[in-house]
Structures are given as structure tokens and as C-alpha cells.
Design a protein that fits this description.
This protein is an alpha+beta fold. It has helices at about 20-30, 50-60, 70-85, 100-105, 110-120, 145-155, 160, 165-175, 235-245, 300-305; strands at about 5-10, 40, 65-70, 90-95, 120-130, 135, 140-145, 180-185, 190-195, 200, 205, 210, 225-230, 255-260, 260-275, 280-300.
Amino acid sequence: MEGRPRVGVIINEAKTLAGAGLEELRAALADAGHADPPWYEVPKSKKAPKKVTKLIEDDGVDRLLVWGGDGTVRRCADHLLHEGYDDVTIGVLPAGTGNLLAVNLGIPIDLRGAVDVALHGEPTLLDAGIVNDRQHFVVMAGTGFDALLIRDADDSGMKDRYGRLGYIWAGVKNRNVSPAQMEVAVDGDPWFSGDASSVIAANVGTLIGGIPAFPDASPTDGRLDVGIVTARSASEWARLFGSVLTNRVEASPFAKVTTAEKIVVDLDRTLPWEADGGDRDRTDRFEIRVLPAAVSICRPRRAAEE
């Protein structure tokens, strides 16, 4: 993209960024030379795609600033990919609970720093994933424990009321959920067969709660990092987290990891699944593929160079 970007803004009204609100955002944009850009506020992330189309089709926007969490960014990226808006770059303004994409890309969790990256960062083509040829994601997708945790944190309102503590509450609630029988194929070859508590396909390394689950993951390598968790009891989960936090997850007897371009998961019963922090309808089969260099997102210039 050459020259000055044509900026438009999508706002998830329910979110604030490190205590800063929309007046501060308008001031920061004005100070950066973008006073009164085209701007839409939505009550929920699912309302964002129609406004994204308006910004692109009616206002000629090619730099889409997204104020919200990973779910709002996912909705916008999913819409860009479905509609073929290849010349639009996303600038992330991380106003969510986890902000996993921002954390992994090195985007500051403060308003002025995030605005600077969104406007002046390096547009970088990042990989995306797609589940069952329907839902795109840029952070992670999975089923089992993580999906149940996200569903209950959302449905109970605990995430909105208590932020990350809501995930802890949901994790305790689901700690005794029975594992499912899973058959997992990686790039066409059988890879895992047995009882598992969770299966995750990730585009980045740091996941919910700041856990460095895949320390070698890269959102630009054309592959997804895959993890199977077989931990069941509290002591097994504790041992697994100890291995993760010391970057020794591959040595844990309660996890198995690899990388892949395509993952197929068959379950013995239907389970909910999640994509970038949003829970989805139950199913018993998942096909997850990587889409290399699929979506343009601004990164800090130093991180992009590295």
C-alpha cells in the first residue's frame, strides 16, 4: 500500500482499552492527522461485518482500525477473507479481555501505542486458519476443555464482569469434564487416537491466560501448531502447566504437539468448539486448514523486521 492510508474505524461499544475510551481515541487519531475518520460503533462483534462493507465500499477505506478483542478482530478478518477485500489492512486497537493477537504481535496494550502501530506499523501478511470451510481464525481454534471454558465464561457473564478471572472460574467449573475419544489426522496421516481433554490448532504461541503453549509458533510460517491434551485430574493439569511454563511441553506425558497444514478431528460425541475466543455450535468432526499469507495486519516495525 502506497502513501497515506484511508482510515476507517470499527468500534465494539462494550470495550475499553486499558481504561481509555472513545474520546481519547478520537483525540489520538486527530493528533496523528486523522480527525473525524469514517466511524461505526456496534453493540456486538457480530454486527461488525456489515459496517466493514460500508467503510470499504462507501468510504474507500483501506486501513481498518478495529477497537475490540480477539473476537471482534476475527469477525472483521473473516469478513475480509470471505469477501475478497485483499487490499485492506487491519490495525488492531486491543480493547478486549485477552487480546491474544495483540500480545503475540507485540502491539502495545495502551491507546497511544496501539494507535501508532495501527497507523504507522508494518502491514504484514499473516496466516489464517479456517474450520470446516466456514469460520476463519487468526489466533486459535479448538474443542474440548478450552471451548467449554470460553463458553461458560461468556454465557455466565463472568468474563464481562471479571475479565481474565472469569476464565479461571470457568476452568474450575469444567475441571472434571470427561475426555472425548478422538481420532486426529495430520496432513493426511493418523497422528493421535484415544481419550483427550482438548485439541487446539494455533496460529500463534501464547494462548489464554498468557500461557506460552507453542514457543516456536509463527503466524507467517504457513503452518498451524497443533496440541492434544490428555490431562484429567487436577494433579495432571498442574504437571502439564508446569511443563508449559518451563517450555518443556513436548516432554509432558499429558500433551502431544506437532505442526500441520491440515488437521482432521473425529469425536465420539458432539462438543462445542471455539475460534479466537468465541464459542460455536456443537459438532463431532472438524477439518482445520491453514491459509498462508491470508490477511494483512499492522505489526510494530521492529517486530516485523525481526
